[in-house]
Amino acid sequence: AKREGRNNFQYYTVQMNATSWQRLKLETELRQALARNEFELHYQPKVDMDCNKIVGMEALLRWQSAERGLVTPAEFIPLLEETGLILPVGEWVLREACKQARAWQDAGIPDVHIAVNLSSLQFRQPDFAGSVLKIMQEHGLDPAMNGIELELTESLLLDNVARTIDTLNTLHEAGIRFSIDDFGTGYSSLSYLKRFPISSLKIDQSFVQDLSSNRDDESIVSAIIALGRSLGLSVIAEGVETAEQSAQLRRMGCDGMQGYLFSRPVPVAEMTYLLQNSANL
Ligand code: C2E
Ligand code: CA
Ligand code: CA
Ligand code: CA
Questions:
Q1: Which of 45, 56, 41 is nearest to 177 (CA)?
Q2: Where is each EAL domain found (predicted)?
Q3: Does the beta carbon of 259 lie inside 6 Å of ligand 1?
């Protein structure tokens, strides 16, 4: 029995080592990915509820790995956050989005609004507001004119509220807009909503999925829409996949939608095509 135990222990250790080895390997690859410029942004249109026109887009990070192929964020964002690599990668995302906004403007495409996702580590950096404004300036973007929008989560907003309000106000005064991502899944931030300079709420896709069959989801979605309306915020539904969902959200008074029904996140060339043909999706 003693021997068996020892063998089990050894087996366990080998397993642990395999896991930490894989993590280390992924971390090393992610560091190289940044140096080798293997990250890219894909863009998913945000569509206006009334006219089905593209009114903005969300930038979503992708990793084009020689070894692994196209990797989506769920597989690497957690490790980026644990290792702090999210800081240089997040800055790359912001620069890339600004570079693209500049390029689209130079190509004569007006009113491009690109929403960028922020991790809380990034937001907590000293003088985060100053560094965002600097990056925009470097790309010749006037924050008041050219829409860079930042998507924040509820948990990010509620961690150190006083400092959050400070950072948000500095950026808001310069013209940057904010939306709350995955709204409804985090802590209840209702009392703070009116203290933050937020312009929109994004209803999490988990509430949209079974909207037509689940009464609870329907109640939550209408409550969010009513809340948004009374606070003067626009409300965007995420993860809209069916015409049925879209029709119901329209009836409920939602302002905008995002989802596979209109377009998946697409590489820059396809997004340019959609914008140039000012596509009604
Ligand atoms: P998110 O911000 O909630 O982004 C929405 C996710 O839903 C995206 O997944 C998008 O591709 C997916 N999606 C869009 N429409 C539909 C639909 O109709 N049906 C379904 N099932 N899914 C849809 P993605 O691109 O894999 O990103 C996952 C998460 O990774 C994002 O969730 C965001 O939290 C994070 N992320 C992505 N890019 C960045 C980034 O640049 N920085 C940071 N910090 N996080 C990022
Ligand atoms: Ca988002
Ligand atoms: Ca979301
Ligand atoms: Ca999400």
A1: 56
A2: 23-279
A3: yes
